[in-house]
Automatic annotation (TrEMBL), chain A:
Pfam families: Ald_Xan_dh_C, MoCoBD_1, MoCoBD_2. One of its GO terms (molecular function) is iron ion binding. The keyword Transmembrane does not apply. Keywords: Molybdenum, Oxidoreductase. Coiled coil: none annotated. This is Oxidoreductase. Transmembrane segments: none annotated.
UniProtKB/TrEMBL annotation, chain B:
It comes from Streptomyces albiflavescens. This is Oxidoreductase. The keyword Cell inner membrane does not apply. Keywords: Oxidoreductase. Signal peptide: none annotated. It comes from the Bacteria. Gene3D superfamilies: 3.30.465.10, CO dehydrogenase flavoprotein, C-terminal domain (3.30.390.50), Uridine Diphospho-n-acetylenolpyruvylglucosamine Reductase, domain 2 (3.30.43.10). Residues 1-222 form the FAD-binding PCMH-type domain.
Amino acid sequence: MTTTTGTAAATRAVGTAHTRVEGLAKVTGAARYAGEIPHPELAHGWLVLSTVARGRVRSVQDAPVLAMPGVLTVLHHGNAPRLESDYTVPFGQPDPALQLFQHDRIPYVGRPVALVVAETPEQAREAAEALVVEYDEEPHDVAFFAGRPGMYTPEGSAAHKGDLEAELAASAVVVDAEYTTPEEHHSPMEPHAATARWDGGRLEVIDSNQGSRFVADELAKLFSLDPDSVRVRSEHVGGGFGSKGTRPHSVLAAMAATVLHRPVRVVMTRRQMFALVGYRSPTAQRVRLGADADGRLRALDHQAECQTSTVFEFIERSADFGRPVYDADAHHTVTRAVRLDVPTPTWMRAPGEAPGSFALESAFDELAEKCGIDPIELRLRNEPTVGPLSGLPFSSRNLRACFEEGARRFGWADRDPRPGVRREGRRLLGTGVAAAAFPTLSAPSTAAVTAEADGTFTVRVTAMDIGTGARTALTQVAADALEVAPGRIRMRIGDSDFGRAIIAGGSMGTRSWAWAIIAAARELRERLVPGGAVPPEGITARSDTSAAVGALTEMERHTFGAQFAEVAVDVTTGEVRVQRMLGIFAAGRIVNPLTARGQFIGGMTWGLSMALHEEAVRDQASGGHVGADLAGYHFAAHADVPAIEADWVDDPDPDDPVGIKGIGEIGVVGAAAAIANAVWHATGVRHRNLPIRPDRVLGAAEGALGA
Amino acid sequence: MREFGYERVLDVSGAVALLGDDPDARFLGGGTNLVDLMKAGVERPTRLVDVRELPLDRIEFTPDGGLHIGATVTNSDLAAHPEVRRHFPALAQAVLAGASGQLRNMATVGGNLLQRTRCGYFTDLAKPCNKRAPGSGCPAIEGEHHNHAILGASAHCVATHPSDMAVALTAFDALVSYETADGPGELPLADFYLPVGDTPHRETALPPGALITGVTLPAAPVAAHSRYRKVRERASYAFAIGSIAAALDVRGDVVREVRLAFGAVASRPWRAGEAERVLTGGPASAEAFAAAADAELAAARPLPHNGFKVPLMRNLVVAVLTELAEEAAR
């Protein structure tokens, strides 16, 4: 029997590098994911998706398939149990995509029309592929392009101050440019998977998601169950990036388990993921900047457009990016949307900020060129002292420090601003820069910390480690809060039974969960008697941060960053290669430098991939994708990713118990713009449409030669 | 997955006899393409005859100083072979430009020649495709085709051949040898792939049931001065959007012999015979290289979104031949 916490064990885990606490389990294969946990009597469901983009299901010819070997059932709109649809979720209205098999309407290619369940995955797949579904097809419209008919302004998507046209007219220098970004997909390494079973009157689901409690609550509502009778566990999750909320696989696994009275697993294929788990909407953006000759902004106008589906509204709020970043006398931002016969887009790493920063930070580079001012200096001249639209103070704002440190390390001072003058063999070299910003949020969460009789501590919180290193970071936070070594902490996460806690998303997970852990740890320490005994069942303290988070004063809370890139462009082939990237971030207190650097570099790699590679192509005739797999949907390969350096400046958040801000998304913001700006610096050609494919570079070079 | 038969064979005649005239049986080499297509449902063989253990894994000199490459030689072994690297460097470079290390360890020379197009419509059963389902149409012509053919295509199919290796083999006048129940045969690679026409589903001139046993490269001193250059949309693990295999023999600024073949521009590796004729005996200058490329590409019929391939191939011809000429001058 040992005791409690003590001064002798005072540690400083936060801020020092720790390898992942589950690292050994992951590299040895001991860590099991949702699709591979063995279970007796397991049946396997295979999704059948619509092949038409609009219409109705006329018939599902299940009889021949039911006669196939091993087939247990075929669920579809003609026989599925009813689901509840009249409920709300924490983020507003529920996604009607979860109303599976409740009607015969088809709103897009890839809508689930049946689930075939069989004894083995192979039998289920063979039967699913043999299932004949007939449709009454209707004309569809999947064409997204700038200014197309049907654009509307969603509620709350516009913000403005000042007389835009007057300020533009009074400006000595004006940039007016249009940008586009394509449809992009998360494609986390682990496909979405769920295993559902009934156990002692409870629905038990093992699922790959970003918020076990959120999934449990929504399943309870869909199936009209008491919230306590649903448990969702997600101990290890292989990436999410916004795609892993409640998705059809977990609903259908639960539905089939209910119908069949046996455990059912549903795993998505990579190709199915392109239709079923959301994506980043394509965007078309127009940016107008007006400035005095010295670069001071008079006008900032960012008009963005995106698509959503006909059944649900999700807005890729690209125009929001500039609101906290730059001030201007006239400051107008709005995102519009059009409803098309496509699946509903969703959050994808830095939703809004990723495409929005590409447009605005490219436009700033164009303004710097026109003004003849260094692009970093231009940005620093437009640093606001308070929120440009809100008038609120910043909790902390260290963008200037990011640029200064980044410029020093990147060697920016030696840069010749002229484009197209650096040659290395057949390749032109250039460098570019961009600013990054992302909101700092926190959300109410609960946690429980138990002092065990053996001197260890168990933390229970429905946190999610989707590959970020959250489990390790929270272990460090708990160790410091309890003043013990991290090895004495048992961190249990990813179980909806641990109580309410925010999702792994919005860069707010670690901050919100850590807050709850610290509150519970403090409570526990007050209850522990120094030198006193701990009973066999331990001593547990619980926390709920609702009041503390709710009491936060309204401020401009953001992370910031400065992105630098160097590229080499072969103008005879159009190939762009990124030679190096540097990101310096002001992103709160860094809990674990090892995994934090991984997240920043991962985000920057996403930016590289967004700049040069990623693009989902939608076939207008069928309404579905072409090449919806990882051979057809290109993302950066290892050979595309150069030495990427990420570091940070001191920037603790004054209102957070640990000083955390959140680092999940800031790394991708601005990275694509820095690369596009570097391509301009190399070649003298602006690329305003992503990705910067070889054919586009070549076409621009040919155009320049031909002119 | 559908059930299928699987048999492994140890000798060539046995392999041919086992496959017989069964149109639903397939030879299995490395499986790096066939198995993918089976997963996608594009290929649905009832039987697989595994030919990987056949004694066709040697690379040997032919009596005239050329090389004979067995059909089951893996791409990795082919690219690493010292005589290949010395006498046909473009071939080794082409193989290394394709796929990944793991795939090259599995993929075989015979299978590489027979790989299918990566056109996104061909591999998606939900969409029409004349190559996969004759008569169903070609949606790429009106749809996504930015990496489709500019040469030799038809109104029925605009898909490209994906192989890098075959481009280099085409430049070097390779001969494909095969075995049938009626005995052995041989086809110049130039005649191996059929024109697209209105039968895009018929891809090669191999007789039914034939097993590729090897590829012969005739002795070609010019090939020692050769290069393969592949342009793709990412630095690895992507098919070409344009590639070139080139060999050049220059004496005193005059082109004595030149070999040129293009990849990713047609339904087969494209021997640039017109460009070779224009260049041979003429000056080895950038202007001449460009004029030769233009002569070859005069036949190009780009679609709305793949016109970039014309200047791309022109630039590649100039760039690679210029490099080879400069090396020859050293």
